[in-house]
């Protein structure tokens, strides 16, 4: 815990004074560019990955980056989505899964979660297709556990993008052409992001190989 307190101390003494104008502006409101739905995993750090400052990403995080139906209000996910679309007028939603995801491992080993009934119940939101895929993949002998895990993680991203359409605010905004969905897969070991291409049904690099920056003005960061 001391490491966190020391970090806060540096934030107060060095980082905050350097960006005081930004924080004064943010104190009056937010206009985030995207709703970023990702796993609670400590190794996934959206602001660092996107190199953006506070106020840019409206975040929603939970085990497995799952999106329950609108009727499941207990988790807060449906409320976060509705607020993002109808109040903040966010035009892009990113569903970002990641490598070595503990929640996806849990789906693959759902029968071993007796001591984690809440987790097991939450993972039901991965949907019946996850159970079907897990059973199918278990029957194959050619795929390693890592390959199976990647397949289930990528399938979950696609399923959760579809689950988003169950939310009236999302469906309405998409029909109006005011909202776009993005499915991303983040690899912790390499830092690379692949995006789902609905046309080809494949995950392809978010940026071309060797390209390190876009031609637009790079987003500012706070470090
Ligand atoms: Zn995870």
Q: What string gives the helices and strands in order?
A: HHEHEHEHHHHHEEE
Strand content: 15-25%
Alpha-beta classification: alpha/beta
Find the count of extended strands (DSSP E, 2+ residues). Answer: 6
Bound molecules: zinc ion
Largest sheet: 6 strands, mixed
CATH topology of the domain at 33-62 and 72-192: Beta-carbonic Anhydrase, Chain A
Report the mean per-residue pLDDT as an integer.
90
CATH architecture label of the domain at 33-62 and 72-192: 3-Layer(aba) Sandwich
Helix segment tally = 9
Structure in words:
- By secondary structure, the protein is α/β, with parallel strands linked by helices.
- It has a domain at 33-62 and 72-192: Carbonic anhydrase (Beta-carbonic Anhydrase, Chain A).
- Helix content is 41%, strand content 16%.
- The two termini are 20 Å apart.
- It binds zinc ion.
Helix/strand layout:
Blueprint (H helix, E strand, L loop, with lengths): L1 H17 L1 H7 L7 E6 L6 H4 L7 E6 L14 H10 L5 E7 L3 H7 L8 H7 L4 H12 L5 H20 L3 H8 L4 E7 L6 E5 L4 E4 L18
Parallel strand pairs: 1-2, 1-3, 3-4
Antiparallel strand pairs: 4-5, 5-6
Helix pairs in contact: 4-9, 5-8, 7-8
The chain binds zinc ion (ZN).
């Amino acid at each position: 815990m001391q490491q966190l307190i020391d970090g806060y101390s540096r934030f107060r003494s060095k980082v905050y004074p350097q960006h005081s104008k930004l924080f004064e502006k943010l104190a009056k409101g937010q206009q985030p560019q995207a709703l970023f739905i990702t796993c609670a995993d400590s190794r996934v750090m959206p602001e660092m990955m996107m190199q953006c400052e506070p106020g840019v990403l409206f975040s929603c995080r939970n085990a497995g980056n799952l999106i329950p139906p609108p009727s499941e209000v207990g988790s807060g996910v449906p409320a976060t989505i509705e607020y993002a679309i109808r109040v903040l007028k966010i035009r892009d939603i990113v569903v970002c899964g990641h490598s070595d995801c503990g929640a996806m491992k849990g789906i693959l080993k759902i029968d071993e979660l007796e001591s984690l009934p809440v987790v097991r119940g939450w993972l039901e939101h991965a949907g019946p297709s996850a159970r079907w895929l897990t059973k199918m993949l278990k029957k194959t002998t050619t795929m390693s556990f890592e390959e199976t895990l990647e397949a289930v993680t990528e399938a979950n991203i696609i399923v959760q993008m579809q689950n988003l359409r169950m939310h009236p605010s999302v469906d309405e905004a998409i029909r109006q052409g005011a909202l776009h969905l993005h499915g991303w897969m983040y690899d912790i070991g390499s830092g690379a992001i692949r995006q789902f291409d609905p046309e080809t049904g494949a995950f392809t690099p978010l940026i071309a190989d060797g390209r390190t920056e876009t031609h637009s003005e790079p987003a500012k960061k706070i470090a």
